[in-house]
Amino acid sequence: MQKPHILLIEDEEDIAALIKLQGEMSGYKVLVEVDGLNGYNAITREKPDLIILDLMLPGQSGLDICRKVKSSPELKNIPVIMLSAKSEELDIVLGLELGADDYVTKPFSPKVLFSRVRAVLRRGKEPEKGPKMVNFGSFVMDVDKYSVRKGDTPIALTLSEFGILKRLMQNRGKVLTRNQLLDDVQNSDSFIIDRNIDVHVAALRKKMGPNFHWIETVRGIGYRFKDED
User: Fold this and answer.
1) Quick one: which of 118, 127, 182, 197 has the most CB atoms within 10 Å?
2) What's the pTM value of the predicted model, to 2 decimals?
């Protein structure tokens, strides 16, 4: 069985070496690039199963690379996990809005990083249960294609945003805690602050548009998908 192929774009050599070592110990093939221009060229050449992408890179920033990947019909389905020393919410939101599937702030544990990698890759392979097409107002979700559209207009969601929306829809009228929704962002052995769920939901709401009002915030608990329009 072929090992999943991970492309790491990281200019700090010691961090790159640790990530590569942990990745290979975890059963992945890890290719390392140390600048943005060579990194993007490697993406187009290798078409990896997943990209681990530092935010601050020489040559071309991680945000620019993420934007180019997610706007390319050929590359847009490759999951992206962003790395950065910046922990401000604004940076997290920007990365997620560009299409990143997860966001890890430095310093971090390489084991935790690869628990996120496993979770993101698993989300793209798990068979879906329940209805394949779901309608709510003028929106339509196609579970098989991991797509959402408003009328004839497609809405580009990350895997995490799609998973959260689907989970809420499958539990219409029921309040889901942030911890329950974390299952759609990473697996249970990784660490993430529950505030990241709020960031994912905020990005999801923004992408769905000003008329999207189905997700309700339940203060101090989590979120609920409205049982009726």
Assistant:
1) 197
2) 0.62
How far is residue 209 from each of residues 153, 166, 205, 206, 216, measured CA to CA in Å?
Answer: 12, 17, 6, 5, 15
| Domain residue limits at 69 | 5-123
CA end-to-end distance (rounded Å), the chain? 47
State the Cα–Cα distance between residues 214 and 67, nearest whole angstrom.
Answer: 28
Shared domain for 88 and 137, answered yes or no, is: no
pLDDT in tens, 60-109: 999 999 999 999 999 988 999 999 876 666 777 777 777 788 888 888 89
Is residue 221 assigned to a domain? Answer: yes
pLDDT in tens, 118-166: 878 876 555 445 557 888 888 898 887 778 999 889 998 887 788 889 8
Q: Which amino acid is at 144?
A: D
